[in-house]
Automatic annotation (TrEMBL):
It comes from Corynebacterium marinum DSM 44953. CDD domains: MFS_MdtG_SLC18_like. It comes from the Bacteria. GO terms for cellular component: plasma membrane. PANTHER family: INTEGRAL MEMBRANE TRANSPORT PROTEIN, RESISTANCE PROTEIN MDTM, PUTATIVE-RELATED-RELATED. Residues 17-415 form the Major facilitator superfamily (MFS) profile domain. The chain crosses the membrane at residues 21-37, 49-68, 88-105, 111-131, 152-170, 176-197, 242-263, 269-290, 302-320, 326-348, 369-386, 392-411. Keywords: Cell membrane, Membrane, Transmembrane, Transmembrane helix, Transport. This is Arabinose efflux permease family protein. It holds the Pfam family MFS_1. It is a multi-pass membrane protein. GO terms for molecular function: transmembrane transporter activity. It is found in: Cell membrane.
């Protein structure tokens, strides 16, 4: 593995920074676990404990989570470029600590919504910052592999914790036992980040001086200029933002709709937990390969194929009426997300200059994580109007449309396989 270094300074590369990289992978697994603790349980908590009816109101917790996470991504990008990565990461975990406590003690659904506001801030600050720190450490040659490892850790933790929370809920009830997992994760993360994680901003200057700079050499850009580049002006960056938003729309839909769809068909809580966990399980394991694959085949083939595969998977889920079909659909959906996720983050790392990389990652994740809110709104409104299966069909159609847009607009950004932007 190649590296780049000043004579007496830090060195770029995965092997050269393996201890810190591995520590950040573990921290991101804890970030993912904070989401997993509630994926199986909250929709059922809404119906069985709080007696809520009306999908739009029930899914409000996903919408609030998405808005909070999107806004926090933006803040994380600005603050990590200005003040450093570690303070932002630590702040993210301080916001995560109250989440399981609020859910365990909630006397009303409004407390659950407040908990997800804090969870969104935790995810935006902590996950965005671990992404930026890993990109800082490895340099351009192994960016896809680094993002695959990062996202695999997060989503495997979502899956494992989701299954564990479902099992604990089946044995000990929906509250408080499943949420003790989240409390333990937050405490462990605060200790690890405070004592062992090191600042990575010093690696930025090293990469900026390297012989293979990022595709965009623009420097001295304002926050507004970077926002427009990532949002619509740059074809690669804006295509990544759109595909990321569609992917998380599907994830947000699965968070709210899938447990109710499966439980409504008479499946037991343990079976629901297994089906809900299959999606992030395949997503997580798949990224161990797809991040590396994007470094060898390029980013665009994986992103395009992943969006169309997600559309097909959602159609399978919507058309199925029993566990085998739903299991096949959720696993295909996980594979589609695995193809897309690390490649999209690698696109941002490829194109953004090191000087404004943190802000670019943050803005991309603003658009991507607004997908949670879009998924909650789509799922709630369509499900209330015409049923849960129809909400899944609607998401399948949107994924198909986004796949077509990405196939047209996204150009290859891998440093060794670049094509000129039209």
């Amino acid at each position: 593995m190649t590296s780049s270094a000043h004579p007496s300074g830090p060195r770029l590369g995965l092997r050269e920074n393996a201890p810190q990289f591995a520590l950040l992978v573990a921290v991101n697994a804890l970030v993912g676990g904070m989401v997993g603790q509630q994926q199986t349980t909250l929709p059922l908590l809404a119906e069985q404990v709080f007696g809520l009816a009306g999908y739009s109101f029930v899914f409000a917790y996903v919408a609030v989570f998405g808005i909070a996470k999107a806004a926090s991504n933006y803040v994380a990008g600005i603050f990590s470029d200005r003040y450093g990565r570690k303070p932002v990461l630590l702040a993210g975990w301080l916001f995560g600590l109250p989440v399981p406590l609020l859910i365990m003690w909630a006397p009303s659904w409004e407390w659950i919504i407040l908990a997800n506001l804090f969870l969104g801030i935790n995810q935006g600050l902590a996950w965005s910052t671990t992404v930026t720190m890993k990109i800082d450490l490895v340099g351009p040659k192994q960016r896809g592999l680094a993002m695959g490892l990062n996202e695999a850790a997060g989503y495997l933790a979502v899956s494992v914790t989701s299954m564990a929370a479902g099992w604990i809920a089946a044995e000990h009830g929906l509250r408080p036992a499943p949420f003790l997992l989240g409390l333990a994760y937050a405490v462990i993360a605060l200790v690890v980040v405070s004592l062992f994680v090191r600042e990575t901003r010093g690696f930025v200057e090293l990469e900026a001086a390297a012989p293979e700079p990022s595709q965009s050499r623009a420097t001295g850009l304002s926050n507004a200029q970077i926002f427009t580049l990532v949002s619509w002006r740059d074809r690669a960056l804006s295509s990544a933002s759109l595909a990321g938003m569609a992917n998380n729309l599907n994830f947000g839909l699965s968070w709210g709709v899938f447990p109710l769809l499966f439980a409504g068909a008479g499946l037991r809580l343990g079976q629901v937990g297994l089906l809900v966990a299959l999606y992030p399980l395949v997503w997580g394991f798949g990224q161990l390969a797809t991040g590396w694959l994007s470094d060898h085949l390029g980013r665009k083939p994986l992103v395009t194929a992943g969006m169309f595969l997600q559309a097909a998977a959602l159609a399978v889920i919507a058309a199925s009426h029993a566990m085998p079909g739903w299991a096949a659909g959720t696993m295909l959906l996980g594979l589609g997300s695995a193809l897309v996720y690390p490649a999209l983050l690698a696109v941002i790392g490829d194109v953004a200059a090191p000087e404004w990389r943190g802000r670019a990652v943050g803005i991309y994740r603003v658009w991507r994580d607004l997908g949670y809110t879009a998924g909650a709104l789509l799922g709630g409104l369509v499900a209330d109007a015409v049923g849960l299966s129809s909400a899944v069909w609607a998401a399948a159609g949107l994924s198909t449309a986004v796949g077509m847009v990405v196939a047209y607009r996204l150009f290859e950004t891998h440093p060794g396989k670049r094509t000129a932007a039209a």
